[in-house]
């Protein structure tokens, strides 16, 4: 399962011969719901989900990768959301990965205080 999670996130250039095979691979994982087998692992299912989120979204987040395909990104997010819905207790490790890759950190401006000069 961890091998499949790592292979989903491999950045493949769109001009490469491997791009169509990578797209076919991710489509099959999404359609057949192969990653749902991770739910049978019980308490260890969060490890697969964390690896899936990390490897899949890392290549999407990097700006220097020219092979960011929105179709692959959408399928990957679909696989992740199905796993998140199936895991009963979501561990802090999975939440950290979600917050790091999906939710962009934002800084709040300091509130005005009349006592600061």
Descriptive report:
The chain is mostly helical and 117 residues long. The protein has one domain. It is built from five helices and no strands. It has helices spanning 2-8, 18-32, 45-61, 70-86, 92-101. The radius of gyration is 17 Å and the shape is flat. The mean pLDDT is 71.
Produce the secondary structure layout.
Blueprint: H1 2-8, H2 18-32, H3 45-61, H4 70-86, H5 92-101
List keywords for this structure.
single chain, 117 residues, mainly alpha, 5 helices, flat
How many beta-strand segments? 0
What structural class is derived from the secondary structure elements?
mainly alpha
Q: Averaged pLDDT, please? A: 71
Helix content: 55-70%
Unreliably modeled segments: none
Distance between the termini: 57 Å
Largest sheet report: none
Number of H- or I-type helical stretches = 5
Overall, the morphology is flat
What's the alpha carbon Rg, rounded to whole Å? Answer: 17 Å
Strand content: under 5%
Q: List SSEs in N-to-C order.
A: HHHHH
- Integer tally of domains: 1
